[in-house]
User: Fold this.
Amino acid sequence: MEWPLRRLVIAIVFLFLSINNLNNQLLLLDDQPTNTKNKLTSEMWHLLPLPERAWERMLFGIFTYDNTNEFDLRKAARETHLNYYKYYSENADSIHGEGDNIRADTICSLQDLLTNSTLARDAESCRIVYTFVTGGGIGNEYLKRHAKTILRDDKDNNNALAFKTRCLYDDPDCGGQDINKWVLSNPQVNISESMASELQEYDDITFLSIPENHELGKTDTWFTYLAILTSQHPELQIGFVGKCDSDNLIRWPIYLDWIERTQKDAIAKYQYIYGGFMVNKYICSGKTWGKVCTKPEFIAERFAPGAFVYISTPLAHHVFMNGTTLERKREVWIIGEDLQLGNMVYSDPNITDNEMDDNGKLYIMDHRRGGNNVNFHPLKTYDDIRNKWYELYPDQH
Assistant:
């Protein structure tokens, strides 16, 4: 055998053995119980080529907390809009054509994506990724019930409470760049019996390492965690990160169809994207909105209410990580989680929706432009969500 040919054969054999060894590692990882399974390391992922996806994933945190009604809302979400694709996939034979070409794993939990390498690497799985999000750090009832009072009293101290409620990238009082310090495997506070039983049955709740709060920085902490997560794990191919409210019903097929029909070209063109049901500054400065946008601290041109809001992953990396300084992130603080996200989006003056330069242009995916029927909010109880769902999809009654 000629020497070049021999070298080629040796190289092929070596490559085959390396891939086989890696596959064995991945299979061993998948065989572990969910609660002990380690996340894939970047080194393991990078040894395999990434699948070519027709669209990048969208990751949403559904904001919730430990209370009886919230327990019911989570239950209703799992039974309705989070179960849409699974229902039609499993009942394809009995539904006239509705289940054709519908994948049960179109919607999956973040926990499944992180722990199941086969699912994560599938080119068509998990277009929508979700997790319920709540604070799990030590706080108190006063914090949860009197957030605005605390903010008003503590405004000059930049929310420097005895317990950190707003964690920022590289903040020495938080997790810094260590992603494992941003979330908790178990809450550090007492939880209800209903949530304890829920945790035994489902693996779809993320506990942030801050105390539960509504207006003191939960949104910033969540988006910072997502920015770090997607930065360290590009192999997950997550193109958008966002949040939803728990009293919300989302028509995912309508939403994804709207994206395909009207937003696909823009998503391919622009890296900085802000999406949701947009409210321009001149509108929210009026009486109808309580003049919330007249506050001098509000620097954004617009904001999207938190019932359903998202930004592109490159924008999250820029404004929540290295594109703005820690000092700048602290400067743009404003009371109101939805206004605060708007401030963070506009925190870098070099990113604007008034410039013609595509590289620095902020593209607005405004649901008012044909996408305003993708979600219903607020639906305050379990029955509200189920009844609305039956109205939309009577075959699921």
